Prior knowledge:
This protein is mostly helical. The chain has helices at residues 6-15, 19-25, 35-45, 50-57, 61-68, 76-85, 90-100, 110-120, 125-134. It is built from nine helices and no strands.
Amino acid sequence: MSDKTTSDLRQELMEDNSIDTYLQGNAALFVNQDVVALLTELYEQKHLTKAALARQAGMSEVYLHQVFAGRRNPSRDRLLCLCIGLEATVEETQQLLRQAGYAQLYPRVRRDAIILHAIAHGIALPLVNDKLYEENEKTLF
């Protein structure tokens, strides 16, 4: 059962007459972690303080603590700033974006390509913003 691909699930969903049957039959395959849980998991793997993360992510400590407490939902750009600050992998970043309900980074979108490259190569946020600005793209903050 756990070897179903996303395509398999999509096809099954479209063919099944009952959403209840689909939901019950695939309950074990649904992603259950929320954004705060995923961020916390990533944060705990790193050896930095929340103050250092806030600096690296270009945000205030107060805002960061509100995000981790679940009182604030970061925008897509703010979530990307957190991913860069956490030095998350491309896969971790895409998972966080998906879980938050945002579009994943797409290499055919010029701005996303710049951000994807930066994440893949561990480029610091100020340099990412500099490159975005240089290329006439909206900066992350």
